[in-house]
Amino acid sequence: MTAIQNALELKDAIRKSQMTPLTDPRFASLEKSTFAEGASATSGLTYYDLEAGAKLLFPVLTPLRNSIPRVSGKGGVQAAWRAITAINSAGLRIGVSGGNRGGVAAMTTKDYVANYKGLGIETSVDFEAQYSGQGFDDLRALAAQTGLEALMIGEEAMILGGNGSLALGTTGAPTLAASTSGGSLASGTLSVICVALTHEGLINASVSAGIQAAITRTNADGTSDTFGGGAAQKSANATVSVSGSTGSVSASVAVKPGAAGYAWFWGVVGSEVLGAVTTINSVVITAAATGIQTASSLPLADWSVNALAFDGLLTQAFAPGSGSLVVTMPNGTAGTGAPLTADGAGGIVEIENVLKTNWDNYRLSPDEVWVSSQEAMNISKKVLSAGSNAAQRFLFDARNDAFAGGVMATTYKNKYSMAGAKSLDIKIHPNMPAGTMLFLTRQLPYPLANVGNVIQMRTRQDYYQIEWPLRSRRYEYGVYADEVLQHYFPPSMSVITNIGNG
């Protein structure tokens, strides 16, 4: 048979098949095997387009940890050092008479002691997870990586606000004032209780989840640790009578030194419920509390200190006798507080006062100020709000008939420096609570100060990883460090706290 005959026969067969309807019973089996696109990614014979490698979509923001030098310790249970904080503190005159000796200068010294603290976190991968992850991700390597990143994130928060020594004590009783407008409170007696929170207590608090007082943690080896979650002892309750169906109540407490925030519970006497967490010492209550945690569930004790943490920068600045400048903003309007104040000349009154005091007292010029996003925005607004007599002007560069919106203050001009005007860097920290600003001086201007690093992490043992022996069909990993934060001259830090938004 020739090739032409084969082609003709094939063409004839195709024509006949096209003339045969699909309803022909001879094609019933083929009709059942017809395919259509699946309704979902996991139905039908479809390819699952999954990119290999899990995407780690969480921020690892550790600016202080990244910039603070790490030095090796030499054993022992604590780091101890002595600082000379003043020379000739009595102000002796230096003139001498013929043949006689001069006066004896008095020195001021201060001893510092800081206990080393162990940091650690555990991860695990069971055998079945390892089997199922083949061809997609190395789960054992991923467990070790995420463990280290989690440890660094926790370490960053501790560097800023860890509290291993500063007890807040008992929160003061609230002062209340009722109004017949501004809210939806019905007539009756409202009881209010307040709890002061440390930095650690604040960043782990929310109305929906509550605040943490005493924490008992079960560890990977079956042991347990109990430590403070950052909550002071709750206040005594205060009551006020509310009239009308549109009532509201203003509540405030005395500022608690070392507190970064306050938790507010209200309701009928004995059944107060968490309704707000603020970064200033006041709140306006306009409706029933929406939280679940009750004030009666809190212990009658101060759990503000975390015995497993070292003291962070804020705690070291707040500590009595530290020499750090701590500026507490006045109460202002309840619920709003007292915001920063523009000086009408492109500056901010409170920042100017801090910079001037640092120079007048210690001849220091801070290098950077760490703020929250709220304060970063408010600083920019205050600088831009300068009147027509301000001593600066802003130039907007427009190109190609377009310009960019938004102006951000990234530095602040410090007038108080031996070298003339100096730039103070404004930096946003992911763990800095709203209402607080921390000024740091990274380089002391004193010759031969014998201080290489003003701030440093002293480690008995820097980061290390342990793959624990198998005790079940599960790979277990621990990432640890043993360290303490040293600040050789706490007076070089300054804090503005209780800042209102605005």
Secondary-structure topology with pairs:
Layout: H1 3-19, H2 28-32, H3 63-67, E1 70-72, E2 78-87, E3 107-115, E4 117-126, H4 127-132, H5 139-161, E5 175-179, E6 188-197, H6 199-203, E7 214-218, E8 224-228, E9 238-242, E10 248-252, E11 261-267, E12 273-278, E13 282-285, H7 313-318, E14 325-328, H8 349-362, E15 368-371, H9 373-384, E16 411-414, E17 422-428, E18 437-440, E19 455-467, E20 474-487, E21 494-497
Parallel strand pairs: 1-19, 14-21, 15-17
Antiparallel strand pairs: 2-3, 4-20, 5-10, 6-9, 6-11, 7-8, 10-13, 11-12, 15-18, 16-17, 18-21, 19-20
Protein name: Phage major capsid protein
Organism: Rhodoblastus acidophilus
What do these coordinates show?
The N and C termini lie far apart (96 Å). The model has no long low-confidence stretch (mean pLDDT 88). The longest helix has 23 residues. The protein has two domains: 270 residues, Major capsid protein gp5 (Major capsid protein gp5 fold, 2-Layer Sandwich), CATH 3.30.2400; 123 residues, no CATH class. The protein is α+β, with helices and mostly antiparallel strands and 502 residues long. It has nine helices and 21 strands. A six-stranded mixed sheet has the order 14-21-18-15-17-16. A four-stranded mixed sheet has the order 1-19-20-4. Helix content is 19%, strand content 27%.
